[in-house]
Design goal:
It comes from Robbsia betulipollinis. The protein has about 90 residues and is mainly alpha-helical. The protein has one domain (about 1-65). Helices cover about 85% and strands about 0% of the residues. It contains three helices and no strands. It has helices spanning about 10-20, 25-40, 40-90. The mean pLDDT is about 85.
Length: about 90
């Protein structure tokens, strides 16, 4: 996008056509980009990134806990089946 900076009318239209864009899309992108920079969106995005990382860590911990519980349940089920297969007639 920075390649189009400084181009006017025909040159800008040719550049946009070559890249599959319209000039008004490029102008809107520039306006949005400048608005975020002027509004100080960087500190908000840093905080949002920290919050997302913290949520990701919590979800990973929960997933690990559930995977361990699932593995334990599966092992108990296998042991129960083996016990029934070996001692099924005697236990009753």
């Amino acid at each position: 996008m920075h390649e189009s900076h400084g181009l006017v009318d025909a040159a800008l239209n040719a550049w946009c056509w070559e890249h599959g864009l319209f000039a008004h899309h490029l102008a809107k992108w520039r306006a949005d980009f400048c608005a975020v920079g002027a509004a100080g969106g960087r500190s908000e995005s840093i905080q949002e990134m920290r919050d997302l990382k913290q949520a990701n860590v919590q979800l990973q911990r929960e997933l690990n806990r559930k995977e361990k519980a699932f593995a334990e349940a599966a092992a108990l089920l296998v042991l129960q089946k083996k016990y029934r297969a070996l001692f099924g007639g005697e236990a009753e």
